[in-house]
Amino acid sequence: MRAESLRSMFERSLSRQKPAVVIILGIILLLAAACGGQASDDSSNDSRKREASRTQEQDATSAASSENTSAVEETTVEKAGASGEEAELARAEVGKREISNMMPAGGKKPDVAQPLPEKPPNGIEVYPATTNFTIKGPIDYERHPPTNGDHDPLWQNCGFYEEPIEDRHAVHSLDHGVVWITYSPDLPERQIESLRPYGQEKYVIVSPYPGQDAPVTATSWRIQLELRGADDPRLRRFVDQFRISELAPLSGNRCTLGVGNPKG
Q1: Which residue has the higher pLDDT, 161 or 32?
Q2: Residues 38 and 127 in one domain
Q3: Are 155 and 257 in contact (CB under 8 A)?
């Protein structure tokens, strides 16, 4: 009787404790779920951070690649700019049909020719080689002023001229390495006078040229530059860089004892 009484009492006690146990188990489950949720949130946040980091890295890589591409494109443009007349000038050489062994004026040894410039003035035009035979009589030139070609047996003396000179004589002087500065007859007198000192320099001819397009034009053998006026700073560079040019077949053969009476 006592044992049964004890079991009954235990069962009643356990029955009264069930709600408490259920509550405790519920709390444990909620805590576990909360921890799991927090862990899931942390994992999700970490995943988003990693994804953002990868995106930033990709953006940085893309930006660097874009900058490199831009730099390459700029370099290509620069090279493209340099591959025009400068590159053509760098490839220029005395033509195979051009005579380069004629006796200099006065029978003396030729003056030493200078190499072509690496940085010529902007705007030069480089023309192909043809021939430089001496021909008596009129000669029809493709360009005016002409830059090269066959010419008269006599060259033009260097100096400043107030009247136009014959193309065929001037071209022979170009063949000797002369720079020929021509100006439009309607150029202001002040500018004409500023050109006069060039005629006092060696290997320079200055003369008016009716009908030319530019106010002032500078020409050496196969090279020509149109200028805005006598005060264009490119004129000085052209004279210094292309006088006695090695591109002229008979460069250094001087321009004296020819034809013409310069005024300065």
Answers
A1: 161
A2: no
A3: no
The answer to the question of residue 264 being in a domain is no
List beta partners, residue 151: 134
Max Cα separation, the chain? 159
Tokens encoding 263: 């005024």
Is residue 210 a part of any domain in this protein?
yes
Q: Please give the full DSSP string across 51-80, using - where no structure is assigned.
A: HHHHHHHHHHHHHHHHHHHHHHHHHHHHHH
Total domains in the chain come to 2
pLDDT for 187: 98
Distance CA 93, CA 245 (A): 11
Find the domain containing 127 and state its range.
97-242
Q: Work out the burial of residue 264: count CB atoms within 10 Å of its CB; fewer than 13 is exposed, 13-18 middle, 19 or more buried.
A: middle
Residues 52 and 136 in one domain: no
Predicted pLDDT of residue 142: 95
- For 12, the token pair is 């009643």
Provide the 3-class DSSP secondary structure of residue 216: strand
Tell me, yes or no, if the pTM score tops 0.85.
Answer: no
Phi, psi of 22, deg, nearest 5: -60, -40
DSSP assignment letter at 156: B
Last residue of a domain, one of 54, 83, 112: 83
